[in-house]
Amino acid sequence: MFEQVSQHIFIRKYQHYTDRPNIGLIRGQRRALLFDAGNSEAHTLLLKQELEEAGLPMPDYAALSHWHWDHSFGTAFWGAEVIAGRETDAQLRKMARWQWDDDAMQRRIDAGEEIAFCSDMIKREYPDRSKIRVVGADIVFDGRLTLDLGGVTCELIHAKGPHSSDSVICYVPEDRFVLLGDSNCKDLYGLSWECDIEVEGSFTAATDALEYDPEKVRDYLQLLEGLDFTHCISGHSEVKTRAHQLASLKEVL
Ligand SMILES: [Zn+2]
């Protein structure tokens, strides 16, 4: 179910079982933008049904927070203009050529291109992996891109941050709200860790023990401090106040 979190923003809450992240819909008078596309066709079908039930419009744009599969693999199924930062787009075009049989997936884990956690989750989300379709963006930007949806604007900002160098955030100044994607999270691809997705609490225990890169957090924090917002939401957690979010980042410096 999509829940309204501010005047123009609706969030479909994350679903941990197959690592589906929060999906945001920003509704303007003329256009709607989806922030993150979902992790599969099945996920997008559910989202479309829930948008319809809530009387919300189908998105004209689907903008991506970063390349990780859980945010991007639904892209092909929206029929919307796909917007991504240059680095995200480049990675998706590379992944569009990947094979999804067990051997190919294991080779990518061994080579450090993929992590076991995401591989396990992909297998869980896709009973039939021939259904995986990865596509690049229609609109690619560097730095910042501002979209006027009619009475509300979305500023897509290449924020980088500690999680992934391609991370883009979606700032909605009229609502004083920021959708962070995973940008504020730890670098799950760069650090060494493992968990068993069948064991409750294993993911949290493993990732809680990981360290942030303070250099990356410092620059990222400076960017967030420069934005006028009161609330924000990260990819896999609840809405937080500005004070709470900034304090939790300052803690790691
Ligand atoms: Zn991620």
Summarize the structure.
By secondary structure, the protein is an alpha/beta fold. The chain has 8 helices and 13 strands.
Descriptive report:
- This protein is of the alpha/beta class and 253 residues long.
- The chain has one domain: 4-Layer Sandwich (Metallo-beta-lactamase, Chain A), CATH 3.60.15.
- It has eight helices and 13 strands.
- The protein has helices at residues 41-53, 69-72, 86-95, 102-110, 116-125, 202-208, 214-225, 242-250; strands spanning 2-4, 9-12, 23-27, 32-35, 61-63, 81-85, 139-141, 144-148, 153-158, 168-172, 177-181, 231-234, 239-241.
- The strands form two sheets. Strands 1-2-3-4-5-6-7 form a seven-stranded mixed sheet.
- Helix 1 links the parallel strand 4 and strand 5 (61-63).
- The longest helix is centred in the first third of the chain and has 13 residues, at 41-53.
- It is globular.
- The model has no long low-confidence stretch (mean pLDDT 96).
- The structure holds zinc ion.
- Residues 66, 68, 163-164, 182 line the site of zinc ion (ZN).
CATH level-4 homologous superfamily: Ribonuclease Z/Hydroxyacylglutathione hydrolase-like
- The CATH architecture category equals 4-Layer Sandwich
Helix and strand composition category? alpha/beta
Q: How much helix, percentage-wise, in residues?
A: 25-40%
CATH class division: Alpha Beta
Q: Can you count the helices?
A: 8
Strand arrangement, major sheet: 1-2-3-4-5-6-7
Return Rg in Å. 17 Å
Distance between the termini: 37 Å
Q: What characterizes the major β-sheet?
A: 7 strands, mixed
Instruction: Work out the count of structural domains.
Output: 1
Order of helices and strands: EEEEHEHEHHHEEEEEHHEEH
Bound molecules: zinc ion
